[in-house]
Amino acid sequence: EVQLVESGGGLVQAGGSLRLSCEASGFSFDDYAIGWFRQAPGKERDGVSCIIRTDGSIWYDDSVKGRFTISSDNAKKTVYLQMNSLEAEDTAVYYCSAWTGGMTISQRTIPMCGFPGDYDYWGQGTQVTVSS
């Protein structure tokens, strides 16, 4: 059974930092993609960053470039999202998601970062609140 467990959210002042963790289990960590998404109240779920082990690519949404860093510890099956210089606009529930291989729903051989429909599994989310 695939499981994704996020942790590390919380309340932080603007300009502060948080590190989110996504601990994965139930699938091989040799060929995967992990995406971080966020959803603010009343808004759609938006892509923040992703890492694709299959081809070694990393992607960031323009809104977080230079502030957020995604990394992985394959031995621990954990993907991290280091968030620096946080802004009030970063307040949202953050979700990690996993693609574990196979054709995506959008008929791609690897998922398109930032497109929620291409991911098969989701964590429960962790709240990030940035006070201004």
How would you characterize this protein structure?
With 132 residues, this protein is mainly beta. It has strands spanning 3-7, 10-13, 18-25, 33-39, 46-52, 57-60, 68-73, 78-83, 92-99, 121-122, 126-131. The strands form 2 sheets. Strands 2, 4, 5, 6, 9, 10 and 11 form a 7-stranded mixed beta sheet that branches. The mean pLDDT is 95.
Mean pLDDT: 95
Low-confidence stretches: none
What is the count of β-strands? 11
Which structural class should the secondary elements be placed in? mainly beta
Helix-strand pattern: EEEEEEEEEEE
End-to-end Cα distance, whole Å, is: 40 Å
- Determine the number of helices (DSSP H or I, runs of at least 4 residues): 0
Radius of gyration, taken over Cα atoms and rounded to an integer in Å: 14 Å
* Main sheet summary: 7 strands, mixed
**Percent range of helical residues:** under 10%
What is the strand content?
A: over 45%
- Quick one: overall form? globular
